[in-house]
Each structure stands twice: as C-alpha cells, then as structure tokens.
Amino acid sequence: MQAYVSPKAVEVGPGVFMVQGEPGAVDMRNLGRTGNAGFIVGETGVLAIDTGTSYRNGEALLATIRSVTDKPVRLALVTHAQKDFLFGAAAFRERGIPVLMHRKAADLMASRCERCLRVLKETLGEEEMKGTVMFTPDQQFDDSQTLDVIGRPVRLFYFGHSSGPGDVAVLDPRTGVLFAGGLLDQARIPDVMDGDIDGWLVALDALRKLPTQVIVPGHGPRTSAAAIDAQVRYLTQLRARVAQLLRAGTALSDVPKAAALPEFAGWDQYETLNAKNASTLFVRMQRDQLN
C-alpha cells in the first residue's frame, strides 16, 4: 500500500485556503482523511475550519497552516458532527487553540461520538488514532453571527436543522468563499442519517442566495453554486422515490435496490450511501405514517 501523502493547502481566494480530503469511505488507504478542511488568514491571526479525523490529522493541518503563514491560529471552528471533521480538535486544543461548535452539533457529538471514536480505532488502528480523544468544545453558539477574531470578519450561518441539527456554513465576505460543511458535498452522495430533508432544502436555497464565488464543500473538490442545484435534485428525487416505494407496499429489504437513482450513479459512495439513505428515509416515513 502506498504511503499516505498529506494534501497541500490550495488558495481558493486571497488569504483563504482549502485542504481537500480523499474520496471514498474511511479506510487505511486514506487514513480516514476524507473530509475537507480549510483556513482563513486575517490581519491578526488564522481561523481554522474543521479539524480532521484524528490527532495526527489535526497536527498535519496545523503544519499545513504553518507552511502558509506564521500568524497564530486564534480559533478552530467545527462545522458539523461527522467523524472526519471532529477529532483533530485534540491537536488544536493541546496548543491552547479554542474549538468552537454550534451547541446542537456539540450535543450530537456528545451523545454518540464515543462510539464514532471506537469505530475509527477499529478501522484505522490504535497507532494511527494515537492521541485522539473525545472532547467538549471550548466555545458554543446558537445563532448566525459574525466572527471578528482574526482581524477579518467571517460570517457563520445556521439555518436550523438541515443536514444535521447544528450544521453551519462559513462565508468569507471579502472573497465570497463559502465553506459549506455538512450542508453540501460535490459529486458525492450526502448522508441523510442526521438530516431533516425539508430543513435541508431550505438551507440549500439560502446558500444559493449568498454572494459566493467559490464553494468548498464538505467532501469533494471546490465547486460553484451549480453543486447546490445538483444536491437539491438528489434529495428531492430520493425522497420522492422512497415515498413511491412506501405507497407501493415495498418490503424494507427490497428498498436499497429499488431506490436506484441513475442520475447520481457516478457520484462517490453511490453504491453504499444511496442504499443506506433510502432505507433510512423509508423507516422514517413508515414511522410517520403510524403517528
């Protein structure tokens, strides 16, 4: 197996950098480093956006930031509670860098991510996950706001329960670069496990109205607003197809195959996540019918 090579930071706008994750599911080949991260360099410091999968991943992200600027990292923002965005926080906190999360994302992490961490250790091994621990964010927030901690205003947007109960997006107004976090993936099947489809579609419509020039998605290469339209089509078609299967009396065991969506068959994780998404929505719709 080839040795993993950490990706370099790519400047996607003046002073705004993306560190792209690897495609595919979390495994030894990619060391679980599948989620995108990034950072914004201001006049007085740096805002890190998402912290990676492990302590080692967090260290690598900090080294990447140091390769670009010697300004101090003032704050690390975790955009949502998925395992490939969270656990590098240990490396940041070890250096006295506070970690910020939306309160509902922090609550979701606290409720389930001890198990996330066990799964990562089983998948990637104890050595790769050495130093990786659960944590409580140093700072929490509830509503959309402007951060002014790096001498450069940065906007945080919370649209309510969407892709997750506390998922947020980050906009650098100076460049129009948007970090979409869990709200948007590029050419990758989004995971609906934590999502509220109605709220998610509302949030995607709100993203579409922001003055963006470049979008850094949660997974996949940098993109444009066209990716929002593609994800809206996926979520809409998935929901409609699952509702159709429920009306037809389809057995749950038949749902994964019956919920094929050919338009998206070329997207990363289609074979696994589309089937999982269909089953998840089917069970929810069944439950809602009974209530």
UniProtKB/TrEMBL annotation:
It holds the Pfam family Lactamase_B. InterPro entries: Metallo-B-lactamas, NDM-1-like, RibonucZ/Hydroxyglut_hydro. Residues 34-219 form the Metallo-beta-lactamase domain. CDD domains: metallo-hydrolase-like_MBL-fold. It comes from the Bacteria. Belongs to the metallo-beta-lactamase superfamily. Class-B beta-lactamase family. This is MBL fold metallo-hydrolase.
